[in-house]
Write a structure and sequence with these properties.
By secondary structure, the protein is mainly alpha-helical. The protein has helices at residues 8-13, 15-26, 58-73. It is flat and about 35 Å long.
Length: 76
C-alpha cells in the first residue's frame, strides 16, 4: 500500500513505492490501493494523516484497517 497526503513532495517521496507496487502486482502479489478511503471523508482527507503527511492518524489507521480487511476477506 502506498498512500500520503496529496502534496507534491509526498507524491515524490512515495513514487518509488508506487513503482514497486506495480512491479509486485505484475508478479502476482496482492496490491491494495487505499485511495478510496480518502474520498468523501468529513473534514477532508487531511484528517486521516498525522503531522508527517505520510503516516496515518489514529482515525486514518482505523479506516485503513477496515478497508484492507474488507478487500482481503470480503468485509465485516
Amino acid at each position: 500500500m502506498v498512500q500520503a497526503r496529496p502534496r507534491v513532495k509526498n507524491t515524490y517521496l512515495t513514487s518509488y513505492s508506487r513503482l514497486g507496487a506495480a512491479t509486485t502486482a505484475e508478479m502476482g502479489a496482492v496490491v491494495i490501493d487505499p485511495a478510496p478511503i480518502l474520498e468523501g471523508e468529513p473534514g477532508g482527507p487531511m484528517v486521516l494523516f498525522g503531522d508527517t503527511g505520510v503516516h496515518y492518524s489514529a482515525r486514518g489507521a482505523a479506516k485503513l484497517a477496515a478497508f484492507v480487511y474488507a478487500k482481503l476477506f470480503g468485509g465485516v
